[in-house]
């Protein structure tokens, strides 16, 4: 489903020189799985996630999603491909002057859906995330967990094959965190959507993931298997993340 082949991404440091955020990394993510990207701060998790939909363009390597090399596409083709890649942000990224329903509708408007189809799809997505009674509320009237549910509904609206979630629970309390993870798991199981989730918390991996890549200094140290909430960790880094959980 998702194949990253020898991906590299560098950023220029403010004081001069370069920082290697992702170093010659290859990774394969299977269709229909929940795949975690875990590591301590600065490991390259969010950069790697943003390389999947080319919010960050790699300096070298290929990003292949559903058999298509996104790095080889022109701008119109990439826009079409991104309609199949939903994104959930850490800080929600909702538009304050639009209602919940209008926030969810936004990617459908951009994609040229009809008003009737948008209204139907927004209602479906609100039902999925349990916010059918909040359609005409504004973001300022919502709790943090509700805002993130709107973000998930917006990502789900165009019927994506993949949802990329960048630390979607880091700003939430433990109870709300679990409800968001349950929501993502439900979407994965009901609709077969592949979910890639960035986290620095091993309990998130144990709760929702089938597998997870452990990152350090922009490289994949290990890909761990998760079964019944147990993580098969072999590397010292993965074990230290388990101990910190």
How is the quaternary structure best described? single chain
Distance between the termini: 30 Å
Rg result: 18 Å
Low-confidence stretches: none
The percentage helix is 25-40%
Shape designation:
globular
Structural class determined from secondary elements:
alpha/beta
Summarize the helix and strand pattern as letters: EEEHEEHEHHHEHEHEEEH
Number of helices: 8
Brief characterization of the structure:
The chain is α/β, with parallel strands linked by helices and 245 residues long. It has helices spanning 45-52, 75-82, 100-110, 115-128, 144-156, 174-191, 202-208, 236-244; strands at 2-12, 18-29, 34-38, 60-65, 68-69, 85-88, 162-166, 194-199, 211-216, 219-227, 230-232.
Please describe what this structure looks like.
This protein is an alpha/beta fold and about 240 residues long. It has helices at about 45-50, 75-80, 100-110, 115-130, 145-155, 175-190, 200-210, 235-245; strands spanning about 1-10, 20-30, 35-40, 60-65, 70, 85-90, 160-165, 195-200, 210-215, 220-225, 230. β4 (about 60-65) and β5 form a beta hairpin. α3 runs parallel beside α5 and α4 crosses α5. It is globular and about 50 Å long. The model has no long low-confidence stretch (mean pLDDT about 95).
């Amino acid at each position: 489903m998702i194949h990253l082949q020898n991906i590299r991404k560098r950023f220029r440091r403010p004081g001069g020189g370069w920082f290697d955020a992702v170093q010659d990394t290859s990774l394969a993510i299977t269709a229909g799985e929940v795949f975690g990207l875990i590591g301590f701060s600065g490991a390259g998790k969010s950069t790697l996630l943003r390389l999947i939909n080319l919010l960050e363009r790699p300096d070298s390597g290929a990003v292949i999603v559903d058999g298509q090399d996104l790095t080889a596409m022109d701008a119109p083709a990439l826009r079409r491909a991104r309609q199949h890649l939903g994104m959930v942000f850490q800080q929600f990224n909702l538009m304050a002057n639009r209602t919940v329903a209008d926030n969810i509708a936004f990617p459908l408007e951009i994609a040229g859906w009809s008003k009737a189809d948008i209204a139907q799809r927004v209602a479906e997505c609100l039902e999925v995330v349990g916010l059918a009674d909040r359609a005409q509320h504004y973001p300022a009237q919502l709790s943090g967990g509700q805002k993130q549910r709107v973000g998930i509904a917006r990502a789900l609206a165009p019927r994506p094959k993949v949802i990329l979630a960048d630390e979607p629970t880091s700003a939430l309390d433990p109870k709300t965190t679990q409800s968001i993870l349950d929501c993502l798991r439900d979407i994965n199981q009901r609709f077969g959507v592949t979910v890639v989730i960035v986290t620095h918390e091993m309990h998130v991996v144990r709760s929702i993931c089938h597998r997870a890549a452990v990152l350090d200094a922009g490289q994949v140290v290990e890909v761990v298997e998760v079964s019944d909430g147990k993580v098969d960790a072999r590397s010292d880094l993965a074990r230290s993340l388990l101990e910190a959980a």
